[in-house]
Amino acid sequence: MSQDLHQDDREFVGRAKRVLDRSAGEIDQPSTLRLQRGRLAALESRPRRSSWIAWASGFAVASVAALALYLWVPLPIPQQYVAVPLDDFELVTSVENVELAEDLEFFHWLADVDQAG
Q1: How many CA atoms lie within 13 Å of 57's alpha carbon, on the beta-carbon side?
Q2: What is the pLDDT of residue 102?
Q3: What is the distance between the alpha carbons of residues 83 and 17, in angstroms, rounded to a whole number?
Q4: Which residues contact 90 (CB under 8 A, 6 or more apart)?
Q5: Rg of the chain over CA atoms, in angstroms?
Q6: Whole-angstrom Cα distance, residue 31 to residue 39?
Q7: What residues have CB less than 8 Å from 97, skipping those under 6 apart?
C-alpha cells in the first residue's frame, strides 16, 4: 500500500511539473521583466553581513587556537638550584672573613692610594 502511495506521489509531482513548466513558458515579456526586477530588488534588499563580524570571528578563532597551543605545549621546567656545599659556607662565615668585611673601608682606601700613587 505504501508503494502505491509513493507511486501516486511521483505521478502527481510529474504532472504538476509539466503544468508549471507549460505555464511558465506562456508568461508574456512585460510580466517576465517585472518578475526579474522584483527578484533583483529582493536580493539587493537582503541584509548584508557586516565586515566586523568576520574580523571578530577570525580574532576569536585565532585566540582560541593560541590558548590551545599555550595549554598544549609543556612549559620548560625551571632549573633546580643546587644547595651550596657547607664547605663554601664555612669560608664565608669564618672569623677571618668577618674581620676583612669590617675593614672593608680600609681596603678601598688602600686601593685608591695605590691607583693614585
Answers
A1: 5
A2: 74
A3: 90
A4: none
A5: 46
A6: 12
A7: 91
Give the whole-angstrom CA distance, residue 4 versus residue 10.
10
Q: Where are the domains of the chain?
A: 1-46, 86-116
pLDDT score for 61: 95
Mean pLDDT lowest for which of 36-40, 41-45, 58-62? 41-45
The Cα 64–Cα 61 span in angstroms is 5
H-assigned helices in 1-117: 2-25, 29-45, 51-72, 86-93, 95-102, 104-116
The mean pLDDT of 66-91, rounded to a whole number, is: 77
- The number of residues in the chain equals 117
pTM across the whole model: 0.29
Question: What are the φ/ψ torsions at residue 90 (nearest 5 degrees)?
Answer: -65, -35
Distance CA 97, CA 99 (A): 5
111 vs 104: CA distance, rounded Å:
11
Q: Virtual CA dihedral for 41, 43, 49, 51, nearest 10 degrees?
A: -70
